[in-house]
Specification:
single chain, 2 domains, three-stranded mixed beta sheet, OB fold (Dihydrolipoamide Acetyltransferase, E2P), mainly beta, 13 strands
Length: 193
Amino acid sequence: MAVTLNCGPKNVYFMMQRIHATIKKPQIGLFQNILKEGGLYAVKDFMVAESNPRYKTTPCIYKIIFVQRTRVVEIFDISFPYTMFEFKSFDQLIDAQTVDESTLIDIIGRLACKYSSQHKEIQGRQSKLMDIILEDLQGLRLPCTLWGDYVDELTDYLSIVNDEQPVIVLLQMCRAKKFGVVRVENTFYVTKR
């Protein structure tokens, strides 16, 4: 799948990449009953702008902005990959000098270790967290912190799974953080499980 965006004097060509899309508050009502998570859509008549948020959902330097005249049509194409991962390898994340903390990433690894859940007060609110260690196929280990409902989901899953089976953890749109060493954590309301 390839998309060409006409950006005035220059054209931008994307091949199988994610691109961030934004719907501003005044236009939400136009699209909230049309768009649903997991849907596939043809979109036309939108704006293109440079993408520079605090946390980028994609490494793409552009984003599309839905406007009043934007047209959206749901399409059905079984050949289109409905889930597009952009996995970062553990060796790309272990080097704190090269880690980009502003771009959300996808990771996959075997659950090698888990610690007890704990509660922590952050900005005056109680938050639940659990530290785990993920391991890749090369044996590299990466610390990971799960927050909120993700703690309960993992705990519930581990209570019903056979202890002898490996547990594979896949986090989409999590973020890397440097605390001496690099660790990853889910991002509230963005990370998919």
